[in-house]
User: What shape does this take?
Amino acid sequence: MLALEALLAEAEGIVFDCDGTLLDNVELYRQAWADGFASTGIGLDRHWHAQRSGLSESVLIDAFEREYGVTVDRQAVVRRMRQTYLEGLDQLRELTPVTAIARRFYGRKPLAVASGGSRQIVLASLRRLGLHDLFDGVVTFDDAGIAKPRPELFLQAARCLALPAPQCLVFEDSPQGIEAGRRAGMTVVDVAQLLSVALPAAVGVAGHLR
Assistant: This one.
């Protein structure tokens, strides 16, 4: 298994997922989705959401409807969810083992974000933490229209960087995101391996390839 330093040195560009990779925002999203689904009278189970926290909005709503046998007003649910999320932006925190890599390579390699989230939330989150200007491109579900694990988000990010997809290194946290990066032909680092150790030790550890 190649060391992370070797992967970083070899990559022509780096693509980052956003939620759960650059941002510690799973709990904020859980609160937001709980508010969004409140009109159904069904409480959002914490464990259920944790298993699906990397899903795009439409995919998560599909899963909710299947799980509970309901049909929801999607526009109303999403509108309320986004409102709650944006009202809670002060809760956002960086996942510093990952954002440190973005800051380190800013201006040295082309960098992009490829997120299954909405453009509204992704841009607001990155700007809130002063991360937006690190990236040469930000691709969201609104831009690609196709959720992970399909590879389109990552392929579009590579095009933003004017690089062939196999020359890009991806940082991802979710199973569907890891699969999407692999299907795009990119090398993928599972950020769980970075988050399990302190940053000084993480710089030299092995990336977990999928």
